[in-house]
């Protein structure tokens, strides 16, 4: 059966043992990617002819911003999967990934502000991208707040899944509307969107750093999911055995 | 229970709670009054900002009106009766939104001439503002009701509900105020109105189903 | 399963939060029978009723109604079920009559009036429920038993906050219902005086 793996995904036990061997390699590869990409980008890549060394913050800013969005798409997809198939792993995934997405959005906001100071002369500008990341950050915070507000696990699962799906549907609208609003209110300011043909020496470390971020976060999410599984299934015999045999 | 008896009782209860609607309206006027008092009372500031001020105030007061939409039903058990009535829950939710929308938005529109006069909104733009409210507010209600249903079982749910829902209102506010601005600048505003309508229609499709899921999860 | 039973619960397992309730519970209800669910506080009596009307989704177990497996699609069962939960579902801001019209819009005024008279609510028919006592509010909810024509009654603590006279009226009505072949499942701590019931005891 081709769909067997999909149904097995619904079983926390199966997922736990399958994903166990993945965490360390992912975290290791991710850390290597991060270190290589960041050291390369921050220390060895050539400086930008316009912005000098300040541009180097993109090696953190861009991966964080990308992840903040990717995490939200993953959240929305997981919410959909939960509402349609009631898959047990989906809310665990949502719980694991939501704070990470929020942190990524926060990193993107802070690095954006730091970047903005020398480039635009202000810490904050109501730029389309910064604004949409700000909205994204609020969406994440709403989900986290909602999830922690309920005592009942089932209710928390359902509620967050609903918000994730609604958010996923709305995200393109929010993004489009903010971009549209931005072009309406401001002329052509210096935009982060314009890519003045980066040289390979500049974008290669960026690529390495982005891949490193993704791998590291994937490992982190799996790790968080595993501890969440242990917590949720703590009454079942396999968890007791696992904890007794191997410790935490 | 039938759909018509449900709708009838919804209207009856809304009528008996007219003080709540009145409070929301007073709140709306107060928020509008904050701007001339807090920022600048001159027509030079107010006239261009009027659309934005009215929309921000409208969003806040609509949130206030929606926030408690399910509270009473949840506490007295009638939400449970709706779930077990054998009627289609999304359809019931749709009727509920429409009843609530009618009872809140109509009075809101009625005091709009007064407010637009107070904010020096040019009379040519007035009708555009009314149109944006008519086309945009349904999506506010549809989205807001999801949040209201999600947080109904929480004791301190209203703050959380606003935190959850307000980000989703950004696009509506953006397109509504930009339509008003475009009209003020003498530009075409039909695109923004079309977007408002599109968002209301999208939320019309999505929201009743989501609200029904949220209600079912909340009553158990 | 026996074909004579109208409602059969087999191997039901409900969970509330972190607690297991009535794991592996099985029972059936035949036409003309009153089933009384007993058990201490927190043993899941209310949850059991909610699970039958699909307000709570059981983890495991099958529910048969009229010989059909309705676990997945509860429509047939819900259509012929009258459920009165712990919160009775009487709206405070509607009058007694409006509340009943909300629930059973199709009854004639005669039926409505006779039910109200039966329950001693006739003088209050135009009073808002807000200003009624707890016992009277309960009676408003129970008036549905006279007005709707559902076969299966699921009543969560129907006797609570009723006075002795109210209890007698209710027991008579339950007796009348089952004698016509109806089914009643109720939770109570109280002894039934007029109705003979079969007991199911939930253990914690």
From TrEMBL, chain A:
InterPro entries, alphabetized: Cyt_c_assembly, Cyt_c_biogenesis_CcmC, Cyt_c_biogenesis_CcsA/CcmC
The terms describing its cellular component in GO are:
plasma membrane
Could you list this entry's UniProt keywords, alphabetically sorted: Cell inner membrane, Cell membrane, Cytochrome c-type biogenesis, Membrane, Transmembrane, Transmembrane helix, Transport
Q: Name one GO molecular function term.
A: heme transmembrane transporter activity
Question: What are the GO BP annotations of this UniProt entry?
Answer: cytochrome complex assembly
Superkingdom to which the source organism belongs:
Bacteria
Query: Does the UniProt entry include the keyword Hydrolase?
Result: no
Bilayer topology: Multi-pass membrane protein
| Main localization of the protein described in the UniProt heading | membrane
Query: Where does this one sit in the cell?
Result: Cell inner membrane; Membrane
Instruction: Spell out where the chain crosses the membrane.
Output: 21-45, 57-85, 92-116, 128-147, 159-182, 202-223
Cytochrome c assembly protein domain location: 16-185
Xref: PANTHER family: CYTOCHROME B_B6 PROTEIN-RELATED, HEME EXPORTER PROTEIN C
Concerning its family, UniProt says: Belongs to the CcmC/CycZ/HelC family.
- Function according to Swiss-Prot or TrEMBL: Required for the export of heme to the periplasm for the biogenesis of c-type cytochromes.
- Protein name from the UniProt record: Heme exporter protein C
TrEMBL record, chain B:
Return the InterPro entries for the record: Cyt_c_biogenesis_CcmB, Cyt_c_CcmB_bac
Where does this one sit in the cell? Answer: Cell inner membrane
> Per its UniProt entry, which superkingdom is the organism in?
Bacteria
Name the residues that span the membrane: 21-39, 45-66, 87-112, 124-147, 159-181, 193-215
Name the keywords, alphabetized: Cell inner membrane, Cell membrane, Cytochrome c-type biogenesis, Membrane, Transmembrane, Transmembrane helix, Transport
**Is Kinase one of the keywords UniProt gives this record?**
no
Which Gene Ontology molecular function entries are recorded, alphabetically?
heme transmembrane transporter activity
Membrane topology designation: Multi-pass membrane protein
Where is it chiefly localized? membrane
Example GO CC term: the record gives: plasma membrane
Q: Give the GO terms filed under biological process for this record.
A: cytochrome c biosynthetic process; cytochrome complex assembly
Chain's role = Required for the export of heme to the periplasm for the biogenesis of c-type cytochromes.
Family, according to the entry, reads as follows: Belongs to the CcmB/CycW/HelB family.
Could you tell me what this protein is called? Heme exporter protein B
